[in-house]
Write a structure and sequence with these properties.
It is built from ten helices and ten strands. By secondary structure, it is of the alpha/beta class. It folds into two domains: 95 residues, 3-Layer(aba) Sandwich (Rossmann fold); 123 residues, 3-Layer(aba) Sandwich (Rossmann fold), CATH 3.40.50.720. Strand 1, helix 2 and strand 2 form a beta-alpha-beta unit. Helix 2 packs across helix 10 and helix 6 crosses helix 7.
Amino acid sequence: MILDGKKTAEEITLSTKELIEKENYKITLALILVGNNPASEIYVRNKKIACAKVGIEVKGYNLPEVTSEEELINIIKDCNKDDEVNGILVQMPLPKHMDETKVINTIDPKKDVDGLTVINQGKLIGGLPTIASATPRGVITLLKKYDIELTGKNVVIVGRSILVGKPLALLFLQNNSTVTICHSKTKNIKEITKQADILVAAIGKPKFFTVDMVKEGAVVVDVGINRIESGICGDVDFEEVSKIASFISPVPKGVGPMTIASLLENIVECYKMQKNIL
């Protein structure tokens, strides 16, 4: 069965729009792009479109590649102080002359819609209420939408980034799953992935996960987005793996739309946190 991220994301977007209109929330997101990375430009455009759909104002900053780290940090500090700005998102990756960790941690944790500051990551580790990264949040939401049991399940996540792999592992742990994280240095990866009740592919290699790496009846979540000659594909060989998986997310129309919808939810949560709305 297909995990329809597009449909689920549309439902989340609609409910977010209705909430903002009903409560008359006046929400503004500062969206900062440095340089002209083509993929980043597409992501930023999609985020702007999504915000417009639900009534979130976007204050866009399109900065040239030569922008200094100090200039970027000063813009973030100004946004931190501005009570009209409720969320701050710096599109990654940044140019090589900038320290991403330093830049991210300049963001006020209450305005950190990506959940990447060490404060919000620490709260996630501690199981405290916080903003979780949009992609991991979207994955968990999608699985729950399809009533997929997480308690006691063997979850294998292939990928250990701070944006997906690590926070997603913590969210699965909060849902009482047993979690294994694999990465580029993992030995006998096939033997590990074959044990997964839920397999999450997030390594950025086109069609890397073949049918012989997946247990029959497993739930497969494909986080990868890869551009190949024939178009866009995920990290999973969808055509073959879909024949044995009980549930599988497609690429596109799977995790991608869920990430955008979850970002909208994060922006609203940041707003409510700042306004002390329970």
